[in-house]
Amino acid sequence: MVNRIDATQKAKDLIQDLKSKHGDLMFYQAGGCCEGTQPQCFEKGGFFPRMNDVMIGEVENSEFWVDKDLFEYWKYSHFELDVLDGFGAGGFSLETPLGKTFKINYRLFTEEELAELVPLKLMD
Fold first, then answer.
1. Which InterPro entries match (predicted)?
2. 55-85 pLDDT, tens digit each
């Protein structure tokens, strides 16, 4: 099976650091205004996905949810979670006080990968 999301080692290291401070985590990537399309990291349960939002997978055992409309736009793309030094579009994400920003790198799936994708989970 082909994962819809993976992470760079730099992102994995930051996630482990955040877990040591905050416990279990989750990610949500919206498609709009306040935070743009920057992925946001929360304590697990600190954000409630909306009806029909999509969990595309897990990163370091942390669910990664995507806004339903954004997912429609990117559903043929592989997500790679990465991290940059500096502040992103907003300040709600747990990495912000550390002077870090999660970001996503995208690439299109190949035809072979599309046939082998891990199933999605939808928010009821």
1. DUF779 (IPR008497)
2. 999 999 999 999 999 999 999 999 999 999 9
Based on the number of CB atoms within 10 Å of its own CB, is 97 exposed (0-12), middle (13-18) or buried (19 or more)? exposed
Whether the predicted pLDDT of 16 surpasses 70: yes
CATH hierarchy code of domain 5-115: 2.60.300
Single out the residue of 105, 106, 83, 104 nearest to residue 95, CA to CA.
Answer: 83
Q: Using alpha carbons only, give the angle 110, 62, 106 rounded to the nearest 5 degrees.
A: 30
Q: In what order do the strands lie in the sheet with 77-85?
A: 5-7, 77-85, 100-108
pTM over 0.70: yes
Report the alpha-carbon distance of residue 3 to residue 118 in Å, rounded.
Answer: 6
CB atoms within 10 A of CB 36: 12
Structure tokens at 26: 């989750």
Contact 27, 63 (CB under 8 A): yes
Q: Give dist(CA 54, CA 88) in Å, integer.
A: 23
